[in-house]
Amino acid sequence: MNGEMEATTQDQVWAQDDLLRLLEAMKVALPQKDLTKYKTSESHLDWQKVAFNSYTAEMCKQKWQEVSKEIRKFRTLTELIVDAQDYIKNPYKGKKIKKHPDFPKKPLTPYFRFFMEKRAKYAKLHPEMSNLDLTKILSKKYRELPDKKKKKYVDDFLRDKETFVQSMMKFREEHPDLVESMAKKGSNVPEKPKTPQQLWYNHEKKAFLKLHPDEVMREYIQQHPELNMTQEDIVKSTLTKAERHLKDKSDGRPDKPPPNGYSMFCAELMSSMKDVPSTERMVMCSQRWKLLKQGEKDAYQKRCEQRKKEYEIEMNRFLMFLMCGLFAVHLTGANSPASKKKNSKANPEKPKRPISAMFIFAEEKRPKLQQERPELADSEITRLLARMWNELPDKKKEKFKRLESVLKAESEKKEKEDRSRLPDPPKNAQDIWQQSVIGDYLARFKNDRPKAQKAMEATWSTMEKKEKIMWIKKAAEDQKRYEREVSEMRSPAAAIASGKKMKFEGEPKKPPSNGYQKFSQEMLSNGELNHLPMKERMAEIGSRWQRLPLKDKDRYKKIAEEKQRQYKVQLEQWLAYRLISLFGAELSRNFNFFIVMLLALSERGGITCCRIRRRTRMMTMMRRMMTTMSRRKLLVKATLPVRRMRMRMMMM
Description:
The protein is an all-alpha fold and about 650 residues long. It contains 31 helices and no strands. The N terminus and C terminus are likely disordered.
């Protein structure tokens, strides 16, 4: 059969247009910078992309090999001379200008000088450390360095910088043609100078807008009545990136993961490079990344992919609970003063506000400011207080900073007291046995505790497994006791206080996130390793996982992925049913509000993802909720058509 197919492909006649189309398709499939040998490029070419009409990938490849036999595969001397002439005329064009022998070398920064001087010494002292850990240690050492010792590196840098500037000027004079090619790219093109009037106007405009932002906005609204806009329609939140992050964290919104392994590596590395100038941080990150082995890079990428999966689940959970919370506020009338008092009494474990000097200052000045400026909204008062704090002299700020330190000390003391209430940690079999025989050994060695300890360890190591079984069982009972006491301590209030997620009734259990976790769960549940302490148990599981064939690892990985998929479906169903069980009786009477509340979610500030993704996610959630409610026959009348909902979603 195969022989017949080959015969048909060979006998098939290719038209000239088809041959030209084949070559054009090959040209498109090649990479933009094709600098490898033709044989290498041919072996890496994706022939599936080249295939067209009735010609398969194999037929295209076979035809190309026939055509290529008729073409020479070497370069003539004439062709080489033309390329050589071009190289001699412009040997340092483009990015190669820095390879020019006369091009001055940029001086190292003070931190880099310190790093290069100490790196070899610390690498010898700590050979087990990775490049990342070594960088963190040296960065910390440089931060702790006294100014006198830092001055040496700074002086060397400034001296070399002056030499570099002079050498650069000399290079520009000697090679004006190369410098012109650099300037054309726009890398060092200076900004066009402004006129005196432009400089004065920009300065005055900035100062005026900083002092009178609200007055300018009110004046604009009065001058443009045709816009039919109020001040609330125009004024937006002026939170900084750090403040937005703080608000999202307090709302319970999960942190967005980095897009790839390289970004995760950079984020971890930059936390230890605060003294390095921002312009050089990315360069250092790139250099460190290149030094990593491929296995280490793959590990970062796997961690990143895992974090993305967790983020997706946490984000869906956050959005659904936000929706439930808004609907509960509408139904129960939580905005009334009576309900606020009731809620404040019923929730003693309410999360505390962050303690800071600025917060203490704002709480002190806010009542007075509200009396003096009643026309201002709360957001405007907050911005005004922030400006007042920034303009406050350092001497007056000291008072609030002292209060901040006192309050923080009290808070830390309370946290320590809470931590001291934890149950006693579980003991392993050896510790329980030693505790039962310590008296006999101390008497034998005349209260010499170190000798008694060594003798007990030697006895335990030579003891047979049958003799150890009793103590292993006692250790298992102690472990159960510890887990029971910890579970008793875990309440919704404790979960909120510790920053952990609250477990709700009926919520599906989170599955293992990867194949290794699934394998670990299986090994821990079958009781095969119960005789080992927890630390040794996990080490044994890790070694068994390493010895596991790749086929079995893939099987566990597929099981974990399937469990994750099932968990997503179960979580969405549980959230929908929970909403119905809580508010089912009211849904038919409040359906309009329910839909409007879904549409208004994006305006609450809690959901700040891109608009397209937000619309898609909200529409999907609405469809699922409506389908579930229809099945339960709880929706008597839906007065808002789906088409109008879509129009509202597009207007968001």
